[in-house]
Specification:
Layout (H helix, E strand, L loop, with lengths): L14 E8 L2 H11 L3 H4 L1 H6 L9 H15 L6 E3 L5 E4 L8 E13 L6 E11 L5 E12 L6
Antiparallel strand pairs: 1-4, 2-6, 3-6, 4-5, 5-6
């Protein structure tokens, strides 16, 4: 199956708007109950009593929302071969119920692997903002992509 994006297409400076997602109170509690059961992610009063100032989305939940937007916006229509891991991840501001998150990806570097010339490493910077344009999370993510000439 032909993909839209191969290593050669992902040049430094290229950006993608990845869409948006509105976070609900129920979603915050459901995610936290299963994956990050800290009180300020589960209970309104505990959230208000915390430095977050209210029931807040887990940072891992914010990262998962961003990952979904990235997968649907770029990765699922690419020659992506996975990632060795996130290099830098920063949660800048809390995310609350009713916030609409939008994500943008920028290619910050790209290089062919000497040890595996059929692959290229593309480092992407992801930025997630709320409906006010406030940066809530950022991460740098090197990801492997197949080169077009080697795709079969």
């Amino acid at each position: 199956m032909t993909k839209r994006f191969y290593y050669e297409d992902l040049v430094p400076g290229l950006t993608f708007d990845l869409g948006n997602h509105t976070v609900s109170r129920e979603e915050i509690i459901e995610f936290a109950s299963e994956f990050d059961p800290q009180p300020f992610h589960l209970d309104d009063e505990a959230g208000k009593a915390s430095i977050l100032g209210g029931l807040a989305c887990s940072g891992w939940h914010t990262a998962s929302i961003t990952m979904r937007l990235l997968a649907l916006g770029v990765l699922n229509d690419s020659s992506c071969q996975g990632s060795p891991g996130i290099e830098v991840l920063k949660w800048r501001k809390p995310v609350f119920a009713g916030d609409t998150l939008s994500a943008q990806m920028e290619v910050i570097s790209a290089r062919v692997l000497r040890s595996r010339p059929h692959l290229g490493m593309v480092t992407m910077r992801l930025e997630t903002r709320n409906q006010n344009g406030t940066l809530v999370m950022t991460y740098d993510n090197p990801t492997l992509f197949a080169r077009r000439e080697h795709a079969a």
